[in-house]
Amino acid sequence: MQKTLKEIAELIDGEIVGNDDLVITGISGIEEAKEGDITFLANPKYVQFLSKTRASAVITSPEIKSRKITLIHADNPSLAFVKVVSLISNDGVKHFSGIHPSAILGKNVSLGKDVAIAAYVVLEDGVSIGDKTVIYPGSFVGQNSKIGTQVLIYPNVTIRERVTVGCRVIIHSGTVIGSDGFGFVTVEGKHHKIPQVGIVEIGDDVEIGANVTIDRARFDKTIIGSGTKIDNLVQIAHNVVVGENSIIVAQAGISGSTALGKNVILAGQAGVVGHINIGDNAVVMAQSGVNKSVPAGTQVWGYPAKPVVTARRVNACVQNLPRLYNTVAELKKKIEELEKKTK
């Protein structure tokens, strides 16, 4: 798809600095771009790439200047580029339409307008599917679950019974929502299953990556707040509450009954114990082990997780342990020599 630079600038409310007659035919990263592509530069520390890129135009912030390449100044270059990608992208992927004859629909299933159900999808009794929702092959929706409007469910997703999914949600392949929480009582060395009779509630505009597992609550609700984005391979246990607009990165795990506030970030492989709170706008850095509540607005790192300034100081000390060991060994040797001389 071709677009003029003027059309793109109007879309993102940007200001062109340079040749406004350019025709854009593609999108790319700043290092990979070629002639005809548009790219973006959000972080000023990478400004050196402007002189190297072969892109025809770059979306960037107003403080960035260049005489060698045409720029579009935008207040938020990253968000502006997202809009351009949606406009120009020409990958040819179009969702199917209609109900495939191999799909299995139970009793009292409610389908909204323009719903698309692919081959071998199973919708059990009492399921409700909102307008313009698309469900790809091999997916399962359990009894009395409710799926909102404009939801996109990729192949082989399992949504168990009595789960509620909001509107404009994207769920990637292999994800399981509403599996039983991991609850057992041990008596005389034997583990007896505790029934998990709660539900899962997914808000609007949530995206859930591939092979994510979100367990149903023991009694009440496991909640994923609106606007939250979850990466691949994340485990969210029973009765967890994730606040709105949070980000949970790959391989993170959240134990049962923990509550995350709004705009929380859990970086890759972070682990969180159960029954604690992580406050609004908190950041848990990669591979951290969180064993107690984290106040709002705090950044923590390490195992056990500590405020990042403290954690970095501790880590610096740890790196010096070999030198400290040698120093102590030398001092011990000198003390022994002095003791021999005094005898």
In total, how many beta strands?
A: 39
How much is the average pLDDT? 95
The tally of domains stands at 3
Helix content: 10-25%
CA distance, first residue to last residue: 92 Å
Q: Class by helix and strand content?
A: alpha/beta
Strand portion: 25-35%
Widest sheet: strand ordering: 10-13-16-19-24-27-30-33-36-38-39
CATH class of the largest domain: Mainly Beta
CATH architecture of the largest domain: 3 Solenoid
Structure explained in plain terms:
The chain has 343 residues and is α/β, with parallel strands linked by helices. The chain folds into three domains: 3-88, MurE/MurF, N-terminal domain (Udp-n-acetylmuramoylalanyl-d-glutamate--2,6- Diaminopimelate Ligase, Chain: A, domain 1); 104-309, 3 Solenoid (UDP N-Acetylglucosamine Acyltransferase, domain 1); 314-342. Helices cover 16% and strands 29% of the residues. It contains four helices and 39 strands. The strands form six sheets. An eleven-stranded mixed β-sheet has the order 10-13-16-19-24-27-30-33-36-38-39, covered by helices on one side. Strands 8-11-14-17-20-25-28-31-34-37 form a ten-stranded parallel β-sheet, with no helix packed on it. Strands 9-12-15-18-23-26-29-32-35 form a nine-stranded parallel β-sheet, with no helix packed on it. It starts with a strand and ends with a helix. The model has no long low-confidence stretch (mean pLDDT 95).
